[in-house]
């Protein structure tokens, strides 16, 4: 397979995974799948990250995301053992 095709597939997978995070967070349902709202929210996040509160926001959001991933993993472990 040509290198460009491998890179394109990696990029496509990456974009799909990012979209999955938007769905997993409930943003799609909460916005009624309104892409203008979703983009506006993401732009607000970017603004916050570029501000003087960026490091604090990163730490807070990283902890919250880690907690959500751990809760999801625990749920999946519990489902498999039943």
What is the averaged pLDDT score? 94
Largest sheet: none
Please estimate the helix content.
over 70%
Q: Determine the structural class based on helices, strands and strand pairing.
A: mainly alpha
The unreliable regions are: none
Radius of gyration: 17 Å
Tell me the overall shape: extended
Instruction: Please report the distance between the alpha carbons of the first and last residues.
Output: 42 Å
- E-strand count: 0
Q: Strand percentage, roughly? A: under 5%
Number of helical stretches of at least 4 residues: 4
Topology overview:
Layout: H1 3-24, H2 27-31, H3 35-50, H4 54-81
Describe the 3D structure.
By secondary structure, this protein is mostly helical. Helix content is 87%, strand content 0%. It contains four helices and no strands. The chain has helices at 3-24, 27-31, 35-50, 54-81. The longest helix is centred in the last third of the chain and has 28 residues, at 54-81. The chain is extended, with a radius of gyration of 17 Å.
């Amino acid at each position: 397979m040509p290198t460009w095709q491998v890179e394109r597939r990696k990029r496509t997978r990456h974009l799909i995974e990012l979209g999955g995070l938007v769905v997993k967070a409930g943003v799609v349902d909460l916005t009624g799948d309104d892409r203008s709202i979703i983009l506006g929210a993401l732009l607000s996040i970017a603004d916050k990250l570029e501000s003087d509160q960026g490091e604090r926001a990163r730490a807070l959001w990283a902890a919250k995301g880690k907690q959500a991933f751990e809760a999801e993993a625990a749920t999946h472990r519990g489902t498999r053992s039943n």
